[in-house]
Amino acid sequence: xxxxxxxxxxxxxxxxxxxxxxxxxxxxxxxxxxxxxxxxxxxxxxxxxxxxxxxxxxxxxxxxxxxxxxxxxxxxxxxxxxxxxxxxxxxxxxxxxxxxxxxxxxxxxxxxxxxxxxxxxxxxxxxxxxxxxxxxxxxxxxxxxxxxxxxxxxxxxxxxxxxxxxxxxxxxxxxxxxxxxxxxxxxxxxxxxxxxxxxxxxxxxxxxxxxxxxxxxxxxxxxxxxxxxxxxxxxxxxxxxxxxxxxxxxxxxxxxxxxxxxxxxxxxxxxxxxxxxxxxxxxxxxxxxxxxxxxxxxxxxxxxxxxxxxxxxxxxxxxxxxxxxxxxxxxxxxxxxxxxxxxxxxxxxxxxxxxxxxxxxxxxxxxxxxxxxxxxxxxxxxxxxxxxxxxxxxxxxxxxxxxxxxxxxxxxxxxxxxxxxxxxxxxxxxxxxxxxxxxxxxxxxxxxxxxxxxxxxxxxxxxxxxxxxxxxxxxxxxxxxxxxxxxxxxxxxxxxxxxxxxxxxxxxxxxxxxxxxxxxxxxxxxxxxxxxxxxxxxxxxxxxxxxxxxxxxxxxxxxxxxxxxxxxxxxxxxxxxxxxxxxxxxxxxxxxxxxxxxxxxxxxxxxxxxxxxxxxxxxxxxxxxxxxxxxxxxxxxxxxxxxxxxxxxxxxxxxxxxxxxxxxxxxxxxxxxxxxxxxxxxxxxxxxxxxxxxxxxxxxxxxxxxxxxxxxxxxxxxxxxx
Length: 722
What we know:
rod-shaped; alpha+beta; five-stranded antiparallel sheet; disordered N terminus; eight-stranded mixed sheet; 42% helix
């Protein structure tokens, strides 16, 4: 308790001055201690958090401990000391110790002033002591020894130096200071210390993290593939996965380094058969990301997949529904394909991933979802598209638990392009040389997978002779019979119309209508057309080129071919004569080869008959020789050869076989019969060859007569023109 007004103002001033000095010293020492504790907390939190990247919970604990220590220091070193009373007696005693010259008179005055109101206290003595203390207090008293300032200033200086150092470091490293403030004062969960490496979880099972989210839902029992890349900074040598709640993951699991060939992810790890929920972190270098939550849910599965195919109408194929039993299905290009599937769980979305053959880029085809009758959840998916190229498809779904199919179905759809139709042109009755009056029989055969719509014969003359302009004074040349020749393309529609998958048409092309001249050429080919609407395809056949010749040239060629066949017949007759003589002489070698010789003769006669028939047909088609001559060739040569093969040749062959099969005793008699049969066959062949020679001579005579007649007509026309 302070003394009443009995103490003088000088004593009161000295006591108040010392009280102020004491409180300033207490405040300085307490503030320096608080600053020291703050600096220690800053240093400890920085040293721990900077290299260790403390988690939010640990940083919160350090912050709470530091805040508590600072509060306790403020209470103990500031609030409690400054709130204490400083009695006048203690202050006077301190002044007495600091100023020995007072000889305890100041303390006595304060004590007497406090006891002045007590009974038995002498007021005169009290006033005397107080006056003496007032006199002494009026002089200069030294307060410093009572409250030394050097220790206080030293502590305050050290605290100020620490604050200055912190300010300098903050100014020199502002990003580090800002990060420390956000992490350790504001307790931010996103602020990160500057690192050499920044890792990023790119995808889970190929799906980007933006689609997956922090809580990653995967089918229970399925494998998950984690892809990590270095978003910024130095690539660490190793990247590890740390997990909680995953059986068998007691130690960190290393990622596979994909190396420089990786495009988006540099590291990959596959966690097999996830059994339950777990939490994981990813660490590499000085980077640690996480936690990420894996939630294992019951996976969906596909009950059934149907494919409804509707081929284009022009193919004539009906629509059909297939079950997905094969990994590869083929459909005509332009087919409308509908994929329907039923899944065991309600869906959020479903899609088909499409990848064209040989391409790396994929595209997504979203499916429409619908509910089964009586259900609210959408478990049925459908996708329609038109098949125009070969693709590989993968069906993916995402159910309401964000779970996917453990093994998405994959299948290929092969687009079978509509091939152009094929055609074949066959000519009969002509060879490679024709006359300008020939009639060519042709046959067009066409084929197409889905059906033909039309067919035609195309005729293109070529090599038209140049028409010479008449000189001055000369008359305009008279056009040949039927007009001047043309080289324009001629199109002859096939009749009847060619329709259906396979069709044929026949016809006769009369070359008179083309007004051809000798030495011109003629190109013929067939073309058929399919029924593809808007984009019909043509199928041309191989081209046949014919040469236009005069009647004499063609007749000479045909007579040459007849002459070759006549020579062949004469040779056969000689061979049969030789065989007959050998058989008559009982030659063993003749017995052995006689049957084979007759077979060779039969094959040669068949070829000769066919060749002679072809010559006769060409004569008829090209309108050369007269009908009786052609008739004689047909009856006296072709028909005779057919009869010869049936009669004389058959008899000679049977007798030769009898000789080969007979015993030694019977062979001489049978050999004579076989020899006679061979001679008869030779005579019959020779007779036919002689008739061919006479007919050839007649044909040459007829041809010469025709040439003479044409020359006479040409001279008459010339004389009339003049």
